[in-house]
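Recap quiz, item 2
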Amino acid sequence: MIEVIACAALEAALNRLLSLEPQLDAELHTSKHKVLCVELRDWQQSIALTYTGKQFMLFNQYTDPADCKISANVDTLMQLSNPSILTHLIRQDKLDLDGDLQLAQSYSNAFSNLDINWAEHLSRYLGDAPAQQIANCFQNAKVHRVSVSKTLQNTLSQLCQDELKVTIHPLELEQFKMHTRHVKNHTAQLEQRIHSLLNR
Amino acid sequence: MKESPQDTADFGYKTVDREEKASMVADVFHSVAAKYDIMNDLMSFGIHRLWKRQAIACSGVRKGHKVLDLAGGTGDLTAKFSQLVTDSGQVILGDINDSMLKVGREKLRDLGLVGNIEYVQMNAEALPFPDNSFDVITIAFGLRNVTDKNAALRSMYRVLKPGGRLLVLEFSKTDNEALSKLYDFYSFNLLPSMGKVIANDSESYRYLAESIRMHPDQETLKGMMDEAGFEQTTYQNMTGGIVALHRGFKY
């Protein structure tokens, strides 16, 4: 029953998103009434998503045929916000896709292009100026967060590589890989020579 | 002259004439129709919406399907089906009770759902449709009120298309003793009082509790569906077996 509650909550959230970003309707126009089934391998759940033109409908434990079926782990699905890596993930066997590829791409595009105009929605409750001010603050905070996170990541990498010496630099890793490849090739050559000597 | 079991039917814990049951059930629903939705939400704490969601998820209803929502009452399932089948499909909301149909029609029209829904007053035991008419038939919380359940299941089988499926969502039996005791206390003590306060009708809600106890359990209903001709019959317990969703196919 928990899955059904989670599914209902997710459906409500998607429909709320639809009311906040009417552009979603235009983006999903060609996907109306088609069923996209997502199988979450690590959670052993199948969820079907349909857009009726008025609302999203989401069903769990879906066992019927779907227009497009995607099977992947949750972390792989998170990467689908970038539609261009879809085929890359399929080649890596991280994702199975059966059916209409365009349906999966249209959903991926629609959600990655989401750009909710928070200022407009907030202005109904707060008035234009405060709503714009708050939206700007959030935008600035977002940019600041990305910048701080990048700086922190760089500092941590340098600390681990140069000061604490607990990790190696990516260039060193690349060099190590190259050496390993050389050793592997030499070993293969040696093995071949031994074989040819033994067969004489 | 003593009445034979074929002439009588259960009406809650009472045994009544078979002909009388339909009109007695009709009286119950005439009485509760106006407050049906609000009482459903209160009585089940809103959980009935989750049970119905699960039924819709298992229905496999798609664009172009023809669906019969039997005992559809105020149209909770029809509202979803109508959007899923689109204008190329059709949903028939059937109920034996015209008060319930009127409430359902008003509610669905207020939601802007028109065009692919028809409202038909009908008896589930003798469905007024040709053979092989529907892709999906659902009956949610209605079968226990039908006088001759076997005849109703046979009638549903007849009008279902080959490859079609029947979904029966109905109260059932819980095998958890603690839950069962709590559920009995709630059904026989709190439910009629809630009915009295909100719908000014405690008797109808006493009937609801009694009719649930008289309804066949999961395995018996599965057997009845098999007997009517359904194949691959399965059921899924929900909320500890308080409600069960039976599913059967016609091939």
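Chain A has eight helices and five strands.
Strands of chain A lie at 35-40, 45-51, 56-60, 68-72, 95-99.
End of item.
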